[in-house]
Amino acid sequence: MRDILYIRLRDTAPDAPTAHALVASDPLDTSLARPGVLVRELPLDEVIALGVGRKVIVFVPGADVRLTTVSVPARQPAKVLQAAPFVLEDQFAEDVDTLHFAIGSRLPGGAFPIAVVTRSHVDDWLAPFNAAGVRISALIPDTLALPWTEGGPWSVLPDAGQMIVRSGPYAGFSCVAEDFELLLELAENGTPASLRVLVARDDATDYTQLQRPLDLLPGFDHPLEALIRHWRPSQSIDLLQAGYSQRDDLNRYWRPWLLAAQLAAVALLLGIGLNVAESQRLKREVAALQTANEETFHRLFPRETKIINLEAQVDQQLRLLNGAGSGGGLFELIQSASSGLAENPGLSLKNVQFRDGALFLDLSGSDLQVLERLRAWYGSHPGAKLDVESADSNENGVQIRLKLSPVAA
Fold it and tell me: What number of CA atoms fall less than 13 Å from residue 108's CA on the CB side?
């Protein structure tokens, strides 16, 4: 078996000090019984040179990788991965074309775990290895290298002023130590979690101040050693998928011939079925558009429970609003909501309703900080009054319900 080079990639500058460890064989099955892994630091370009002829495992910052799940009718991972960007696009402020999606093993409930990272991050991580001609075997978010047992405690790795937390089989977060207790409370969602803290030998911190059920696992000299000992491939997600798959590179010699055969088959099938496919596509688009319009109407006018003639009912509602002298208020509130969300990115609109002269917005986001920015923005833009009706935090982010009311003249 080839030697394995483990790397903790924090900075891609050629001279950046980079933690790494060489092991003679894979220690994963008996990691807790092995002596300490020797971790050293060298400039990144020297560390990469050590990877020639070796299996290379790279741990990247979990703070740059968002973890979520997706449920779609498909069961094949490749088809799920194709559908994931379209199913999840409302959760991200970025254009999904700028994001890279990687999939994990199917969960017992039928959903699939998904790791999402910007393509620019992956490109930056891979660039120095590609330049040196060194192939990476796996690219792993460090959050998913922490230990996890079903029903067990959350794992915490202190690391040079940072706290890395695995709060579920495919969930976690990273933060500075000063924000740890606050983010921990938000992630717990009202139920204090048991914690397993991986403690370095020179760490004198009193973790009992966290006032939670606590299990301390001491005995490592460097965070990379803890990641190596506890990483389980079956419980993590390798980011090298789809366009970044190293396996795809091995196919470069025969792929041109396969592509030619595929193109010939596609041309034949298109010649036979193009008209049928186009007709079916148009029917689906019309049906989807009608459904989307009806859903929007129900959100805006929840008291209208039955739709007979959508166009006529929309016109009737607008005439009623104008007759009540509140038509301007509705459109002013919609404009205010649009401006507030555009100026404070990080929140995704899930639902909107207009009733009793106020606009109710259901939003999702990654943390509560953007809510505070939105609240401050409305404080300096008094076109509408903002009230926070609820703000709930869980492992998938935060769910927020806001109320926008007209400001009395």
Answer: 2
